[in-house]
UniProtKB/TrEMBL annotation:
Residues 5-146 form the NADPH-dependent FMN reductase-like domain. Belongs to the SsuE family. Isf subfamily. It comes from the Archaea. Coiled coil: none annotated. The lineage of its organism: Archaea, Methanobacteriati, Methanobacteriota, Stenosarchaea group, Halobacteria. GO terms for molecular function: oxidoreductase activity. Keywords: Oxidoreductase. Its cofactor is [4Fe-4S] cluster. It is an enzyme of class 1 (oxidoreductase). Its EC number is 1.-.-.-. It comes from Halosolutus amylolyticus. This is NADPH-dependent FMN reductase.
Length: 195
């Protein structure tokens, strides 16, 4: 497994982000499973709102972000839930990526909410990944009541922490899966091609 590289993208810009904390736990588990890991913290990238008339090379750090995602064997997307969906920073990051970055890649999903289970955010990310012909790990991590889930940057509930860690192990385990058959949505999403 030493050749497996797992990248996690944090869709939260908050300094004390529960999403980032959870993704760090995902990556720790992936590291322990033998992979190299990298956290892509979107606070560190200059990503303007996506404009299809602007080349990715001319859009701040979009090309750098896309290259680092492209180099991954498995990708874990993490987001806080905003208004029932995933965050706008993550949306912008995904808009700068396409089939070259996601097609036939293994993708894990993690979402955090301030209240109830962030199921719709997970569903929306799954739809985007399916449109890009990625293979989404069936196991996903949902963290409700984010402020109560952590104490001093550590998980309060060991079962929830284990669920998050399992996502990291599965990202390594399934990084080289044969993702056939492709999804029917993939050929319909011609806008993502050739950005």
């Amino acid at each position: 497994m030493s050749d497996i590289h797992v990248v996690a993208i944090s869709g939260s810009l908050r300094d004390a982000s529960y999403t980032r904390r959870a993704l760090e736990r995902v990556l720790t588990a992936a590291d322990r499973a033998g992979a190299s890991t990298e956290l892509l913290d979107l606070r560190e990238f200059e990503l303007p709102l996506f404009d299809a008339d602007v080349d990715r090379a001319d859009a701040g750090d979009a090309e750098v972000l896309a290259r680092r995602v492209r180099e991954a064997d498995a990708i874990v997307l993490g987001t806080p839930m905003y208004h029932g969906s995933y965050s706008s920073p993550l949306k912008s990051a995904l808009d700068y990526c396409g089939f070259d970055e996601f097609e036939d890649k293994t993708v894990g999903l993690l979402a955090v909410s301030g209240g109830a289970f962030p199921v719709t955010a997970l569903d929306h990310m799954r739809s985007v990944c399916r449109a890009l012909n990625a293979w989404v790990i069936p196991h996903e991590a949902a963290i409700p009541n984010g402020s109560a889930a952590f104490e001093d940057a550590e998980f309060v509930d060991p079962k929830l922490e284990e669920r998050v860690a399992t996502l990291g192990r599965r990202a390594v385990q399934y990084a080289t899966i044969e993702p056939d058959p492709g999804s029917f949505e993939g050929d319909q999403n011609v806008g993502a091609e050739g950005k």
